[in-house]
Amino acid sequence: MWYPEDKDFDALAAWGLAANPFAAVDDFSAMKAELRWLNPENRKIYVDYVKRRIEYIAGKNFDSYYKTARKPIDRRRWEFLMQRKAWFIMPLGWDRIADAGGTVIDLGCGDGDTVQRLIDFTNARWKAQGVTGRTLHIVGIDLNQSRVDNALELVKSANPAITFEFSQGDLVGGLGVADGAYDFGLITGVLEILEDELYAKFVAESCRVVKKGIYIEDLFEEFPGGYPRDNLHEEFAKHGYAQKLRHVVLSEPFDVEKVRDPMKLWPMLLDQNVWLERTA
After folding, report:
1. Theoretical Cys-Cys bridge with 216: which of 14, 61, 175, 274, CB 3.0 to 4.6 Å?
2. Which residues are CB-contacts of 12 (< 8 A; sequence separation ≥ 6)?
3. Could you tell me which residues come within 8 angstroms of residue 82 by beta carbon, excluding any fewer than 6 positions away?
């Protein structure tokens, strides 16, 4: 079991996200996407990663697994993952959410780390702007009750105007809420694992329950059990959403000689961030 030490948090801090949360955009280039394969450490981690994914998907009933698997996590690893993933889960369009307030649904919230980052982002922005009288309520939904339990234990808000709740739910099966029940939506690390039929249902329900804007983070790399989509905006367009912003980035700072993640959790993978807004 991996467990981060203080030096590992220091290594993440050196990535410079505190000063520039979009550092991954500035760091990326198409040439770097190719040159990463010259990195021997990255190639080894990638081979191991693919092997783990093949073993992971072999013989699994994913409908049952995603609902019932026990996924406990302690606060220190949760905080490391939250800071680690901030490189490729960037606050794209989050300024629009903070400036509007209202309601947000995180569709596939996992352990709640993206909800925590949206809480912290909004609180910081409101403080900097002297905002008062505005509220934000975030609802996290996940198929797995164990991960919902993690979120309920770990997520905190220092601002009483920013509230949250978490519950188990199946988006593909329908959430049973009114059309446009939420102003904004977050979808991180979900679409990439859905086959086309489930993907279409997930997108349709997401667009049904969200009425203004949707943020997406999605793995953009071929791998076993994954479905990277260069044209994911086209499915959303069927339901009245247009892509306004998009960035393809690497999942960590580029280095041709070493893997920068101190825990070496993943190889350097391609990732996409998308912001969509309703047009119809």
Report:
1. 274
2. 80, 83, 84, 262
3. 113, 116, 117
- Residues paired with residue 217 on neighbouring β-strands, in sequence order: 188, 273
Phi, psi of 180 (to 5 degrees): 65, 30
Domains in the chain, ordered, with CATH?
Answer: 6-12+19-278 (3.40.50.150)
| Whether the predicted model's global pTM rises above the 0.90 cut | yes
Q: How confident is the model at residue 61 (pLDDT cuts 50, 70, 90)?
A: low
Please give the Cα distance from 276 to 242 (Å, whole number): 5
What's the count of helices (H) and strands (E) in the chain, helices before strands? 11, 7
Mean pLDDT of the 132-143 span: 97
Angle between helices 75-85 and 113-129 (to 10 degrees): 70
pLDDT tens per residue across span 138-195: 999 999 999 999 999 999 999 999 999 999 998 777 899 999 999 999 999 999 999 9
Predicted confidence at residue 63, as pLDDT, reads 58
48 token code pair: 């191991």
DSSP, residue by residue, 106-157:
EET-TTSHHHHHHHHHHHHHHHHHT--S--EEEEEEES-HHHHHHHHHH---
3-state secondary structure (DSSP) of residue 216: strand
Q: Which tens digits make up the pLDDT trace of 107-121?
A: 999 999 999 999 999
Calpha distance 167→177 (Å, rounded): 13
